[in-house]
Design a protein that fits this description.
alpha+beta, 559 residues, four-stranded antiparallel beta sheet, Alpha-Beta Plaits, 11 strands
């Protein structure tokens, strides 16, 4: 049986695979346990790693730490890149319509927590690397820890013990970071109870409206002329004129008392109401509308998938589908967001288009766009590895700041997430397909973060319990609670009283600033819509970027 024991006790790549598999399996199983609807999820992998790391250390088993480091870094790169690609398509859109305000508040929370950590270093006896570890744990931000450790090792490559000490501090602070933010959610909920909740439409969401042409200024003018009166986008899917129904083109002339069925952004409703003259009160946004039988015209509304790779990044207008087949593309569903299908909108692989016309014409459009769902099931691995390659290269570029002897870098956490966001947002313009099914995208992110947390916890496990059960450990616990609670509650009060955020927006913004999906789960349980999740997605990328960069900068300044 020596061969069996050797798998666990002899340093090798097999030993690392076995240990990490044990950690991940145990952690994920425990992560399914819920207490009052709240679960730590994949975070339990971190604690499973700590426990096994402590056991291995007590048994005196040698471990191939180079393999552990390789797995840890690869997992981190995979996670942050996949996350960047996921939020990239809606990132820049989210900065509009309140996104800037949300990000500024998230930045305030980031600054305050950082100042508290610096204060802990200044007024207690803990070292600055330990204070940074506590900040990373209190902010439940393990990529930030990776960036801080990398910055430390870039300056002092031999100081592996200090880097592991930062991970230990992070491990101690992590659960109390979760509890601290959860406590803030509870306090804010009590403070804001009874207040009227406002739920604005998310940026980019579409709205269907019927207009009555009663503005003399547009009588006998074509749709192209009317569209030129504003820079806002609208798609007119049907025109009722003199008892007839037609699919309009840009040359269709509008007459007095015509009725238009249009798709636009709700925020633009008032502007087009002024242009056309009057909006009818029919509710065209009910989920029970039978779009194939709304006027007896024989026109139907169907969904068509973009599955031909050569159409990735092509503008809708350049395909000339409307004039060729007498159809209208009214909206585009992308990553769960409904977009107005204006001619300049660039298609992406996996887009689901709503097409209005007759059955024969829509079938021909489907042939041009592909409309073969099975082709989307094949993962596009090329773009993933190209993106990770570019992310690592950009993360390694040194940026020199006057007055500092050592340059800063985006690192393996910052570089890939920046590249992921850019590729997710602009990749189709360069014919770089980033489409992946939702399950495949989730698998990439989960695989990356699980491997990273397993390695991180395993590395911190050796000194974890001996550190916690001493005076220094108690001090770390107190400081992590202060960092996780006080700055967050201050930001939440500012956001609610002076910035007009309701509870759901406030909770989502704070959870993103603290990279705390566990507290977000609690906030979502008290909300009937996705407002908290939308605020989280809006703030998270920039908050993560700021955390990663600030961690490196602070380490270079103080160490």
């Amino acid at each position: 049986m020596n061969w069996f024991t050797d798998i666990f006790t002899q340093p090798s790549y097999l030993q690392v695979v076995v240990l990490l598999s044990m950690i991940c399996a145990a952690g994920l199983a425990l992560g399914q346990i819920k207490v009052k609807g709240v679960s730590l999820g994949v975070t339990f992998v971190f604690f499973a790693g700590i426990i096994l790391g402590d056991i291995v250390n007590r048994m005196g088993i040698e471990v191939n730490w180079s393999m552990i480091a390789l797995a840890q870094n690869f997992g981190l790169i995979l996670f942050v890149y996949a996350l960047g690609v996921q939020v990239g398509p809606g990132f820049f859109t989210s900065l509009k319509q309140g996104g800037i305000r949300l990000n500024l508040l998230g930045f305030l929370a980031t600054v305050l927590t950082t100042l508290f950590a610096i204060g802990a270093y200044a007024f207690t006896r803990i070292s600055f690397p330990d204070a940074m570890g506590l900040l990373c744990g209190a902010a439940t931000n393990t990529p930030m820890l990776g960036a801080a450790q990398q910055a430390l090792l870039d300056v002092h490559p031999e100081d592996i013990e200090t880097a592991n000490g930062m991970a230990t501090a992070c491990a101690v602070a992590y659960p109390f970071g979760v509890f601290g933010v959860l406590a803030c959610m509870i306090v804010l909920k009590l403070m804001m109870r009874g207040r009227e909740q406002h739920h604005p439409d998310p940026a980019g969401e579409t709205y269907v409206a019927e207009f009555h042409v009663s503005n003399p200024a547009i009588f006998n003018h074509d749709i192209k002329y009317v569209a030129g009166l504003t820079d806002k986008h609208i798609i007119i899917s049907r025109v009722w004129s003199d008892g007839k129904v037609m699919i309009p083109s840009s040359t269709t002339v509008l007459k007095k008392d015509d009725h238009l069925l249009a798709v636009l952004r709700r925020d633009d409703l008032q502007a087009f109401n002024v242009i056309f003259g009057e909006q009818e009160h029919t509710d065209w946004n009910r989920p029970d509308i039978d779009w194939d039988n709304i006027d007896g015209s024989g026109l139907v509304s169907k969904h068509v998938l973009v599955t031909r790779k050569e159409l990735n990044g092509v503008k809708i207008g350049s395909l000339h589908l409307r004039n060729t087949f007498n159809i209208n593309i009214t909206r585009v569903s992308r990553a769960g967001i409904q977009l107005v299908a204006y001619p300049g909108l660039r298609l992406q692989l996996g887009d689901r288009l709503t097409v209005v016309g007759d059955d024969t014409a829509i079938a021909k459009v489907g042939e041009i766009l592909g409309n073969e769902e099975k082709t989307l099931r094949n993962p596009n691995l090329v773009s993933i590895f190209i993106g990770m390659l570019l992310g690592v290269i950009i993360g390694s570029i040194p940026f020199f700041i006057p007055g500092m002897s050592t340059p800063i870098k985006l690192g393996i956490a910052g570089g890939p997430i920046v590249v992921g966001i850019l590729i997710g947002a602009f990749g189709p313009r360069f014919r770089l397909s980033t489409y992946a099914t939702r399950s495949a995208s989730l698998m990439l992110r989960q695989m990356g973060i699980v491997i990273y947390l397993a390695c991180l916890g395993f590395g911190a496990g050796a000194d974890f319990f001996s550190t916690v059960f001493c005076m220094q450990g108690l001090l770390w616990i107190l400081l992590s609670l202060l960092i996780a609670f006080v700055p967050v509650i201050i930001t939440g009060i500012v956001a609610s009283r002076w910035c007009g955020l309701d509870y759901a927006q406030n909770a989502g913004m704070l959870c993103a600033a603290m990279a705390n999906p566990m507290a977000l789960t609690y906030a979502n349980a008290d909300s009937d819509d996705e407002e908290a999740s939308e605020a989280y997605a809006t703030v998270y990328p920039l908050a993560m970027f700021v955390r990663v960069i600030s961690a490196q900068l602070l380490m270079l300044l103080f160490v």
